[in-house]
Amino acid sequence: MRRKLTPDDAVPVRSHARTGTRCAGTTSSRTRRGADLRFGRTLPRALRAAGLVDVTAAGCFPIGGVACDRLEAATVRMVRGELLAAGLADDVEIDAHLAAVEAGELDLTLAPLISAWGRRPG
Predict the structure, then answer these.
(1) Residues 77 and 50 in one domain
(2) Residues 11 and 5: beta-carbon distance below 8 Å
(3) Is 72 contained in some domain?
(4) How do residues 49-60 score in pLDDT, each as one tens digit?
(5) Are residues 55 and 70 in the same domain?
(6) Which domain covers residue 56, as residue numbers?
(7) What is the structure's pLDDT at 29?
(8) Residue 28 lies in a domain
């Protein structure tokens, strides 16, 4: 049985070179492909503009797990050429990152998942 971590526990952290740069690269790649990264933040306003009232939104930030790992690997494979062309990563770095993902060595997160809802007045 695993015990819960406490604030006093030392947690080993594996660092992967240029991970932040690679994340920025995949983000800019998504926007070039037409993704609106502000959509979740603007969704409640859009619902109110459509005439709904009592608009509410909630979000969650999935951390870790098979779904996060699969999405990360698929995304990196999809934009690999763009990362290489932009000089944001080289083949060795990308292969090392994918190997770490597949080995379950990283605690990856998905983009926040936003749900919004409201009701018609009356």
Answers:
(1) no
(2) yes
(3) yes
(4) 999 999 999 998
(5) no
(6) 39-63+112-122
(7) 67
(8) no
φ and ψ of 14, to 5 deg? -100, 125
What pLDDT does residue 109 have?
A: 84
Q: What is the pLDDT of residue 63?
A: 83
In the chain, the number of structural domains is 2
57 within 8 A of 43, measured Cβ to Cβ: yes
Phi/psi region, residue 87 (left: phi>0; alpha: psi -120 to 50; beta: rest), is: left
Give the position of tokens 């979000």: 59
Task: Identify whether the C-beta of residue 116 lies closer than 8 Å to the C-beta of residue 47.
Answer: yes
pLDDT attached to residue 10: 44
Is 68 found in the same domain as 56?
A: no
At position 69, the amino acid (one-letter code) is D
Question: Which parts of the chain register pLDDT below 70?
Answer: 1-30
